[in-house]
């Protein structure tokens, strides 16, 4: 586990830094896929995408990448933090999980299949947690959360 602070990406870019953030630099150095987790005392928020513009998030996601993030978060919570049976909520990408395609289809096309695959692989207990709409998630504040949106939207 490595703890970092925000860096000035603009300034680093001006001096030739080629990475969008230190997360990607560390990942390249160790040849691993990073798991960015924002933490408070009670909540851990893991990101499904890292340093990606909101307009590019949908293209950056895949069923496999979401499942990998769920598995990595569960591993982090159990192995690194010693939590027993941690609760994980997967937040929707589109508002209200797309309202069955009325607002968007990313949740139907990517998030729901990823949750189903994560359940099949034993990473996730759908009956206990489900797909959570961040607009109505009072109970998710008490859970570890993996989000598929830009982190500013959840923290704003």
Structure commentary:
- With 156 residues, the chain is of the alpha/beta class.
- It has helices spanning 9-14, 22-30, 57-60, 63-80, 106-120, 126-129, 151-155, and strands at 37-39, 44-47, 88-91, 131-132, 144-147.
- Strands 1-2-5-3-4 form a 5-stranded mixed β-sheet.
- The chain is globular.
- It starts with 8 loop residues before the first helix and ends with a helix.
- Residues 134-145 and 147-156 have low confidence and may be disordered.
Strand order, largest beta sheet: 1-2-5-3-4
Radius of gyration: 16 Å
SSE order: HHEEHHEHHEEH
Q: Percent of residues in beta strands?
A: 5-15%
Largest sheet: 5 strands, mixed
What is the β-strand count?
5
Mean pLDDT: 77
Runs with pLDDT <50, length 5+? Answer: 134-145, 147-156
Question: What would you call the structural class?
Answer: alpha/beta
How would you briefly describe this protein structure?
This protein has 156 residues and is an alpha/beta fold.
List the helices and strands and how they pair.
Layout: H1 9-14, H2 22-30, E1 37-39, E2 44-47, H3 57-60, H4 63-80, E3 88-91, H5 106-120, H6 126-129, E4 131-132, E5 144-147, H7 151-155
Parallel strand pairs: 2-5, 3-4, 3-5
Antiparallel strand pairs: 1-2
Describe the structure using short key phrases.
alpha/beta, single chain, 5-stranded mixed β-sheet, 156 residues, globular
């Amino acid at each position: 586990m490595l703890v970092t602070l925000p860096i000035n990406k603009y300034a680093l870019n001006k001096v030739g830094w080629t990475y969008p953030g230190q997360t990607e630099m560390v990942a390249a150095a160790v040849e691993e896929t990073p798991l960015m987790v924002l933490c408070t005392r009670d909540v851990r928020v893991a990101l499904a995408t890292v340093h990606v513009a909101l307009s590019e998030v949908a293209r950056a996601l895949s069923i496999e990448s979401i499942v990998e993030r769920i598995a990595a978060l569960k591993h982090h919570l159990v192995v690194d933090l010693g939590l027993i049976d941690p609760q994980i909520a997967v937040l929707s990408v589109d508002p209200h999980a797309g309202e069955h395609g009325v607002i968007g289809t990313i949740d139907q096309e990517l998030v729901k299949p990823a949750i189903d695959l994560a359940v099949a692989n034993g990473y996730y207990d759908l009956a206990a947690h489900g797909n959570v709409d961040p607009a109505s998630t009072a109970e998710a504040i008490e859970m570890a959360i993996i989000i598929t949106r830009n982190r500013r939207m959840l923290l704003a």
